[in-house]
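Comment thread on ticket #2218

A.B. wrote:
> Attaching the input chain for the structure job we discussed in standup.
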Amino acid sequence: MSSNQPNSAVQAAPPLVQQITPEFAAYVEQVLHREIEKVHQNAQERQNMEVFRVAREQALQAEYEQREQAYRREIEALRVQLQEQCQSLKLVAPLPQNKSEFRGIGDDTIVDEAKLAVEVGADG
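C.D. wrote:
> Ran it. Output below, let me know if you need it in another format.
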């Protein structure tokens, strides 16, 4: 690089403007107004998106609560139905009151005795 050539950064600098013409001032004003309008539109779009997001979140929350209530009602109905079914059941043999009553009896014996008690109860 020779010292006679100017630096490239110096070459890229814009020329100095001695006077701004009315046409150039009007052009700059139009450009600024367009940019300001874009900023306003973007702000409005962001606000609309936020309103939509909040509305969607509220709708999802309402749907969740509605489903939860429906599930709770269904569970309660099933609980009541199960209670009614349990009340209609009749024991055909007394149940052991404690673990000591099971001593010496194998698991299959308990099952066989329970089947026998059910069969005898059904016949009698």
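A.B. wrote:
> Thanks. Noting for the ticket: Helices lie at 8-12, 22-88, 107-123.
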